[in-house]
Design brief:
With 225 residues, this protein is an alpha/beta fold. The protein has two domains: 73 residues; 128 residues, Glutaredoxin, CATH 3.40.30. Helix content is 46%, strand content 13%. The chain contains four helices and seven strands; from the N terminus they run H-E-E-E-H-E-H-E-E-E-H. It has a seven-stranded mixed beta sheet with strand order 1-2-7-6-4-5-3. The N and C termini lie far apart (136 Å). About 14% of the residues have low confidence. InterPro entries: DUF3105. Keywords: Membrane, Transmembrane, Transmembrane helix.
Length: 225
Protein backbone atom coordinates (compact mmCIF):
# COMPACT_ATOMS: atom_id res chain seq x y z
CA UNK A 1 0.00 0.00 0.00
CA UNK A 2 2.78 2.38 0.98
CA UNK A 3 4.66 1.42 -2.13
CA UNK A 4 1.66 2.31 -4.30
CA UNK A 5 1.34 5.71 -2.60
CA UNK A 6 5.02 6.40 -3.10
CA UNK A 7 4.76 5.44 -6.74
CA UNK A 8 1.73 7.69 -7.22
CA UNK A 9 3.45 10.58 -5.45
CA UNK A 10 6.55 10.19 -7.56
CA UNK A 11 4.49 10.15 -10.75
CA UNK A 12 2.61 13.30 -9.67
CA UNK A 13 5.89 15.03 -8.84
CA UNK A 14 7.26 14.04 -12.22
CA UNK A 15 4.18 15.41 -13.98
CA UNK A 16 4.39 18.64 -12.01
CA UNK A 17 8.05 18.95 -12.86
CA UNK A 18 7.29 18.28 -16.52
CA UNK A 19 4.55 20.90 -16.44
CA UNK A 20 6.97 23.40 -14.87
CA UNK A 21 9.53 22.69 -17.56
CA UNK A 22 6.86 23.11 -20.23
CA UNK A 23 5.72 26.39 -18.63
CA UNK A 24 9.30 27.67 -18.49
CA UNK A 25 9.76 26.70 -22.12
CA UNK A 26 6.60 28.64 -23.06
CA UNK A 27 7.82 31.63 -21.08
CA UNK A 28 11.15 31.52 -22.91
CA UNK A 29 9.39 31.29 -26.26
CA UNK A 30 7.09 34.21 -25.34
CA UNK A 31 10.05 36.32 -24.22
CA UNK A 32 11.84 35.56 -27.48
CA UNK A 33 8.73 36.48 -29.48
CA UNK A 34 8.26 39.71 -27.50
CA UNK A 35 11.91 40.67 -27.94
CA UNK A 36 11.79 39.84 -31.65
CA UNK A 37 8.60 41.86 -32.06
CA UNK A 38 10.13 44.79 -30.24
CA UNK A 39 13.22 44.65 -32.45
CA UNK A 40 11.05 44.62 -35.58
CA UNK A 41 8.95 47.51 -34.30
CA UNK A 42 12.01 49.58 -33.42
CA UNK A 43 13.56 48.78 -36.78
CA UNK A 44 10.36 49.87 -38.52
CA UNK A 45 10.32 53.12 -36.57
CA UNK A 46 13.94 53.78 -37.44
CA UNK A 47 13.35 53.08 -41.12
CA UNK A 48 10.26 55.26 -41.08
CA UNK A 49 12.14 58.10 -39.43
CA UNK A 50 14.94 57.82 -41.98
CA UNK A 51 12.44 57.92 -44.83
CA UNK A 52 10.69 60.98 -43.38
CA UNK A 53 13.98 62.77 -42.77
CA UNK A 54 15.19 61.91 -46.26
CA UNK A 55 11.91 63.08 -47.78
CA UNK A 56 12.11 66.35 -45.88
CA UNK A 57 15.71 66.72 -46.91
CA UNK A 58 14.77 66.14 -50.55
CA UNK A 59 11.93 68.65 -50.25
CA UNK A 60 14.31 71.19 -48.74
CA UNK A 61 16.77 70.58 -51.55
CA UNK A 62 14.03 70.97 -54.15
CA UNK A 63 12.82 74.18 -52.50
CA UNK A 64 16.35 75.51 -52.26
CA UNK A 65 16.99 74.64 -55.90
CA UNK A 66 13.76 76.31 -56.96
CA UNK A 67 14.52 79.42 -54.93
CA UNK A 68 18.05 79.49 -56.28
CA UNK A 69 16.80 79.16 -59.85
CA UNK A 70 14.31 81.99 -59.31
CA UNK A 71 17.00 84.15 -57.77
CA UNK A 72 19.44 83.43 -60.57
CA UNK A 73 16.84 83.86 -63.29
CA UNK A 74 15.55 87.14 -61.90
CA UNK A 75 12.95 87.36 -64.69
CA UNK A 76 10.48 89.65 -62.98
CA UNK A 77 9.42 93.25 -62.55
CA UNK A 78 10.53 95.31 -59.57
CA UNK A 79 8.39 98.36 -58.83
CA UNK A 80 10.14 101.51 -57.69
CA UNK A 81 8.86 104.22 -55.37
CA UNK A 82 7.82 106.23 -58.45
CA UNK A 83 5.54 103.40 -59.63
CA UNK A 84 7.77 102.49 -62.57
CA UNK A 85 8.27 98.76 -62.98
CA UNK A 86 11.78 97.74 -64.05
CA UNK A 87 12.43 94.36 -65.67
CA UNK A 88 15.16 92.42 -63.87
CA UNK A 89 15.71 89.71 -66.47
CA UNK A 90 17.87 89.68 -69.56
CA UNK A 91 16.42 91.33 -72.66
CA UNK A 92 17.81 89.96 -75.92
CA UNK A 93 18.51 92.30 -78.81
CA UNK A 94 18.80 89.88 -81.72
CA UNK A 95 16.95 90.57 -84.97
CA UNK A 96 14.75 87.55 -85.69
CA UNK A 97 12.07 86.52 -88.17
CA UNK A 98 10.43 83.83 -86.02
CA UNK A 99 7.62 85.02 -83.74
CA UNK A 100 8.79 85.96 -80.24
CA UNK A 101 6.65 85.14 -77.19
CA UNK A 102 7.31 87.94 -74.73
CA UNK A 103 6.83 87.36 -70.96
CA UNK A 104 4.92 90.61 -70.48
CA UNK A 105 2.25 92.63 -72.32
CA UNK A 106 3.12 94.95 -73.86
CA UNK A 107 6.75 93.83 -74.10
CA UNK A 108 9.50 96.01 -72.66
CA UNK A 109 12.27 94.56 -74.79
CA UNK A 110 13.80 91.38 -76.11
CA UNK A 111 14.63 89.90 -79.49
CA UNK A 112 12.67 91.69 -82.20
CA UNK A 113 12.05 92.27 -85.90
CA UNK A 114 14.70 93.87 -88.07
CA UNK A 115 12.44 96.81 -88.99
CA UNK A 116 11.06 99.21 -86.36
CA UNK A 117 7.73 100.99 -86.20
CA UNK A 118 8.03 104.68 -87.02
CA UNK A 119 8.12 106.43 -83.67
CA UNK A 120 8.47 110.10 -84.52
CA UNK A 121 5.26 111.02 -82.67
CA UNK A 122 3.27 108.40 -84.59
CA UNK A 123 -0.26 107.55 -83.41
CA UNK A 124 -1.61 104.25 -84.71
CA UNK A 125 -5.29 103.29 -84.61
CA UNK A 126 -4.67 99.53 -84.89
CA UNK A 127 -2.66 97.22 -82.67
CA UNK A 128 0.98 96.76 -83.66
CA UNK A 129 3.18 93.78 -84.21
CA UNK A 130 5.06 93.88 -80.90
CA UNK A 131 8.26 92.69 -82.56
CA UNK A 132 8.42 95.92 -84.59
CA UNK A 133 7.42 98.10 -81.65
CA UNK A 134 10.14 96.57 -79.46
CA UNK A 135 12.68 97.67 -82.06
CA UNK A 136 11.34 101.22 -81.60
CA UNK A 137 11.94 100.88 -77.85
CA UNK A 138 15.50 99.87 -78.61
CA UNK A 139 15.90 103.22 -80.37
CA UNK A 140 14.79 105.05 -77.22
CA UNK A 141 11.08 105.52 -77.91
CA UNK A 142 8.28 105.58 -75.36
CA UNK A 143 5.28 103.50 -76.39
CA UNK A 144 1.81 104.51 -75.14
CA UNK A 145 -0.79 101.73 -75.24
CA UNK A 146 -4.43 101.60 -74.22
CA UNK A 147 -7.44 99.28 -74.14
CA UNK A 148 -11.10 99.86 -74.94
CA UNK A 149 -11.65 100.66 -71.26
CA UNK A 150 -9.62 103.86 -71.50
CA UNK A 151 -11.71 107.05 -71.59
CA UNK A 152 -11.85 108.66 -75.03
CA UNK A 153 -10.81 112.03 -73.56
CA UNK A 154 -7.65 110.43 -72.14
CA UNK A 155 -6.88 108.68 -75.43
CA UNK A 156 -7.29 111.94 -77.37
CA UNK A 157 -5.12 113.90 -74.93
CA UNK A 158 -2.37 111.28 -74.95
CA UNK A 159 -2.47 111.15 -78.74
CA UNK A 160 -1.93 114.92 -78.86
CA UNK A 161 1.04 114.59 -76.50
CA UNK A 162 2.57 111.80 -78.59
CA UNK A 163 2.16 113.74 -81.84
CA UNK A 164 4.13 116.62 -80.34
CA UNK A 165 6.92 114.43 -78.92
CA UNK A 166 9.64 112.84 -81.13
CA UNK A 167 10.66 109.29 -80.20
CA UNK A 168 7.17 108.28 -79.09
CA UNK A 169 4.42 106.15 -80.58
CA UNK A 170 0.93 105.12 -79.53
CA UNK A 171 -1.40 102.23 -80.35
CA UNK A 172 -4.30 100.21 -78.91
CA UNK A 173 -3.53 96.95 -77.09
CA UNK A 174 -6.55 95.08 -75.76
CA UNK A 175 -4.37 92.27 -74.40
CA UNK A 176 -2.73 94.38 -71.71
CA UNK A 177 -3.94 94.24 -68.11
CA UNK A 178 -4.57 97.97 -67.50
CA UNK A 179 -6.44 100.63 -69.53
CA UNK A 180 -3.39 102.86 -70.11
CA UNK A 181 0.28 101.88 -69.96
CA UNK A 182 3.57 103.57 -70.84
CA UNK A 183 6.52 101.44 -71.97
CA UNK A 184 10.21 102.08 -72.57
CA UNK A 185 13.07 99.59 -73.01
CA UNK A 186 13.12 97.61 -69.75
CA UNK A 187 10.58 99.85 -68.00
CA UNK A 188 6.81 100.18 -67.71
CA UNK A 189 4.25 102.33 -65.90
CA UNK A 190 0.51 102.15 -65.43
CA UNK A 191 -1.16 105.58 -65.39
CA UNK A 192 -4.67 106.60 -64.42
CA UNK A 193 -5.20 108.95 -67.35
CA UNK A 194 -3.73 111.70 -69.48
CA UNK A 195 -3.72 114.08 -66.53
CA UNK A 196 -1.68 111.74 -64.31
CA UNK A 197 1.60 113.54 -63.43
CA UNK A 198 3.37 110.21 -63.99
CA UNK A 199 2.86 110.64 -67.75
CA UNK A 200 5.08 113.72 -67.98
CA UNK A 201 7.62 112.21 -65.58
CA UNK A 202 7.86 109.02 -67.64
CA UNK A 203 8.30 110.90 -70.91
CA UNK A 204 10.92 113.15 -69.35
CA UNK A 205 12.95 110.24 -68.02
CA UNK A 206 12.65 107.64 -70.76
CA UNK A 207 12.31 109.39 -74.14
CA UNK A 208 15.87 108.83 -75.39
CA UNK A 209 16.70 108.10 -71.75
CA UNK A 210 19.66 106.37 -70.16
CA UNK A 211 17.99 102.97 -70.69
CA UNK A 212 18.18 103.32 -74.51
CA UNK A 213 20.31 100.56 -76.08
CA UNK A 214 20.77 102.53 -79.32
CA UNK A 215 20.50 106.26 -78.51
CA UNK A 216 20.05 108.47 -81.54
CA UNK A 217 18.97 105.62 -83.83
CA UNK A 218 16.25 106.55 -86.34
CA UNK A 219 12.55 106.68 -85.50
CA UNK A 220 11.63 107.26 -89.14
CA UNK A 221 12.19 105.14 -92.24
CA UNK A 222 10.61 102.11 -90.63
CA UNK A 223 7.08 100.70 -90.83
CA UNK A 224 3.91 102.75 -90.65
CA UNK A 225 0.30 101.66 -90.84
Amino acid sequence: MGSAKSSSSAARTARIEEMRRAEKARERRNRILVIAGSVVAVAALVVGAVVVVQARSDDDKDTAASTSADAKGGDRFVTGSDGVRTWQGKLGRTHVTKKVSYPMEPPVGGDHAQVWMNCNGNVYTKSLNPMNAVHSLEHGAVWVTYTGKAAKADVDALAAKVRSTPYTLMSPDDDQAEPIMLTAWGHQRVVSGAGDPAVGAFFEKFVQGAQTPEPGAACTGGLSQ
